[in-house]
Structure formats: structure tokens, C-alpha cells
Amino acid sequence: MFSKLWLTLVVAASVLVVDARQIRKQEIHARQAEAVKRWQNSAHSFPVRRAAAPKNITFSNPKASEFYVDGKSIPEVDFDVGPSWSGLLPISADPNETRKLFFWFFPPGPQGSLDDLIFWTNGGPGCSSLEGFLQENGPFQWGVGTAKPIVNEWSWTNLSSVLWVEQPVGTGFSQGKPNIRNEDDLAAQLVGFMQQFLEVFSELKHKKLYLTGESYAGTYVPYIANYIYTHPTALDLSLQGIWIADPSLSWDVVQEQIPAVDFVHKYENVFAFNQTFMRQLDALATKCNYAGYFQKHVTYPPNGLLPLPGKSTSADPGCDVWDIIFDAALRVNPAFNIYRIFDTFPVLWDVLGFPGSFEDIQLAPLYFDREDVKKAIHAPLNVSWAECSNINVFPHGDGSLPSALTVLPNVIEKSNRTVIVHGLADFILIAEGTRIVIQNMTWNGKQGFQTPIANDSFLVDGVGALGTSHIERGLTYVEVELSGHMVPQYSPLAAFQSMQYLMGMRDTP
Fold first, then answer.
1. N or C: which end of the chain has fewer CB within 10 A?
2. For residue 20, what pLDDT is reported?
3. How far is residue 13's CA from residue 23's CA, in Å, rounded to a whole number?
């Protein structure tokens, strides 16, 4: 039998527990709404919603009308997104040209700039830029796990006109037989497409151009920019700079293998590996010269060129720790997402069918594979659309070296600003690996950043510190806490703010 004192303590404790846990939904929602309000009021004078009436652009070429999309007729979108133009255009002026790229162009929102044009491409290689459009930075979005499209509060159309292009040939709705051998071929074909685009939409000539993308676009975009800089008369546009998120810049051994075990230690409670396996990983990292690499070699300024950890640009036999970790993570969590490690079971339904590492089984056609959607945006009805192509867009492989080892330094030097953004919850390309790449790269006369990257140095308006940022000699590097691989999807305000910086609309990222 309990004593009176014990009963008193139990009753008191019960009261405390009940008080702590009976927080009402109204209070939770009120706190969340207040937090959302801080985010929504944080982008200076820029609106956080795209109005139904964007800035008007009238195109004089009658052919432009063939690409017009009625903003009130896009399937499942129950609001007017305003006028846009989409369809296929060839990569050259040859009347017999069979290779065509699919695009979707939107003019700026009410306070966006008419003087600028943002180009966006996803990576892959062979992944569709319509993924970026629908789930990252387009004027409406249909996110993973949501029931229908909504207004994208952080659409990049609030900054300027935006052009999403499915490239290279073989990607998405784009037409023709892929034949590119390397990134120079890709850039030449993309610029050829842009020439045809500007002939139809000639009022966009002479705009300031910003090249942006993510993932393998870390290879695409610098090569495209370098091609434009070395062919200054090829386009009637003025290239200002580039923005690349979670980019493929160097060898996978640098951006995946070296930092992989340290990444697991940083997020031990997320991976939830047992200690025996952790000791095995640590031993393997030591054997493969990954252990301590970052602490020894990533100095500010660098002490010379950084060495590869093994005998080649690939992981030595037995040293593929990244895949060992991936397989182990899937055993613990079948929904483990290499693009954002925080995802767990069950997998949320995705209208594009590709939420992460775990392939979703769709009960309905993928959004861009629906006939009504294809008709609305002038896409070919005979193409089975998939987010990432199942054919090799480089038929014999990409013959180009990574961009950080070749063209990226020149692009930084010729651009007004270059921005590299990295989500810190990304496992497929790890932020510490990108730091290694930067510290091994020479631009504007010096190698790497000369001063350390300060903690908590990326400040998001109305939110506070959300990662790090660093600027030296024309290169800006930003790391974003909580964000996965697709920064405009997982941290849209951070991406939006860093784009404002790229475009000279703010002094700091």
C-alpha cells in the first residue's frame, strides 16, 4: 500500500505530466503560424506570393503564340498562375534538325525584374528540370506528400523571368537521339537552343542572364558559362554569374568517400548504427586514408595542393565506404533518403514518383505523364515522361573532367558573382567534400579560401543563423542547416535569399 506521501507525489507528478502534454492544437498552430509569419516577412520588399497578374511581356513574333499556356487551364491547379510559354524548340537553325529541347518560360511576378533572365537546369545527368519547376522554384508547387498544387511563396519568378529547360537531349520531353561526347558538346547544343529561343522570344534579348542548377548541374552550368564567356557573340544575353546547389564539382572520392564516415558521426542518432558497426567504419576509414583527412588538409589558407587519399580518382578496392554506409542505412531505415537523411518510413507519396532513395509506387500517372498535362503545356503526347531518363544522355560517357579542375575558376573570374550553396543534410554529395574541392581550387591568383568559414555566418532574414556563408575573390559559399540535396525544395527561403544576392538585390547572401 502507498504511503500518503507517495500518493501526494504521484498526484503532483500526474498533474505536471498532464499540464505538460495537454498543450492544445490551437496553441501549437498559433506558435507555428507566428514562426511562418517571420519567414514570410523576411524577404525585404519582395512579395512572398506570386500575384495572378505578373508583369506583361508582349512577344512580337507570331510563332510565340504557339507556345502560350493559359494559366487558368493547368490541370489540378485551382488558381491562375498567369501567362507562360512552353514547348519544344530545336538546338540549331537547321530546318532538318530533329533534336529539340523542352522548355517552360514564365515572366516575372509583379515586383520581379524585367531586365533579368534566370536559366534553370536539373542534373542527373538526364534528370528533368520540370522537377525543379514543380517542387523547387516554380510559381506553383506540388510537394512530396501534399494533396494538390499550391502557390509557391518563394518562386524565383518573384525575382525575374525564369526559363526551365529539359536538357541535354534525351531528358524529359526533349526529342532526338543523344550524341554528345562531353560538356563542351552539351554547352554548344544548349546555346544553340537558346539562340532559337531568342529568335522566337526576341524581346528577351539583351537581358542579364543567370545560369542556375543543382547536382550534376555543378558540371553542366560551369561548362555552359565557360562556353558563353569564350563565345561572347553567341548569345544576345549578358551573362552575370552562376548559382549551383549541392554541385558535382570533382571526383566522387572527394565529395562522397572522404567525408562519409565523418558525416555518419555528425548524424549518429539519425543513422542509428550500432557501435560495433561504427568501429568497423572507423577502422575502414583509417585503412583508406579517409580518417582525419579533413582536419589535416582543409586549412585556411591551404598548405598546397590537397592529395587524393588512394591510388586513383576512384575509391581503392575495399574503400567504397559510401556504398557500405548506404546499404547499412537502408537495413535500419528502408526509406533512407540519400538526398535528405532525415526521411523515415512510410515514404510520402510523390506526384513525380521519385521522393528519394526509395522508389515510390504510383497509383496514378506521374503528373507530367498525364495526357491532359501534356496537352496544356504543348508536350509530345507520345513520350512517356520520367523524372530521370533511363537512357544515357552521354552515349559513351561524359568525357569532360570535373568543372572545379577545369572551367570553374575561369567562370568565377569572369562573373560578377558565383554562388555555391550546399544542404548540410545531403548524403549523396557531402558539404565537407565540397569544402575540400574549394580549398584545392585556385582562382583569381590564390588557392582556396584564405580565411576560415565562420560558424553561424549564414543569416536568414527573420530567422537567424541557419548555416554558414563565406565570400572571397568573387566566390560565395553557403551551407544550409536542415536542407537536403535540393535546397530550393528543402529550404526555399535560403535559396531565394542567396539568389537575391547573386542578382545584386542584396549585399550579403
1. N
2. 47
3. 17
DSSP tag of 404 = G
pLDDT tens column, 245-257: 999 999 999 999 9
Domain with CATH 3.40.50.1820 in the chain: 62-249+399-502
Coil, strand, or helix at residue 423? strand
Q: What is the pLDDT of residues 65-74, one digit of tens each?
A: 999 999 999 9
pLDDT, tens digit, 9 for 90 and up, residues 73-102? 999 999 999 999 999 999 999 999 999 999
- CB of 418 within 8 A of CB of 241? yes
Note the pLDDT tens digit of each residue in 181-223. Answer: 999 999 999 999 999 999 999 999 999 999 999 999 999 999 9
Give the 3-state secondary structure of 151-195: ECCCCHHHCEEEEEEECCCCCCCCECCCCCCCHHHHHHHHHHHHH
H helix intervals, 341-397: 371-376
Distance of alpha carbon 28 from alpha carbon 6, whole angstroms: 34
Helix (H, G, I), strand (E, B) or coil at 435: helix
pTM comes to 0.91
- Check if the beta carbon of residue 488 is closer than 8 Å to that of residue 132: yes
CATH match of 62-249+399-502 with 1.10.10.10: no
Residues serving a catalytic function are 215, 426, 485
3-class secondary-structure state, position 150: strand
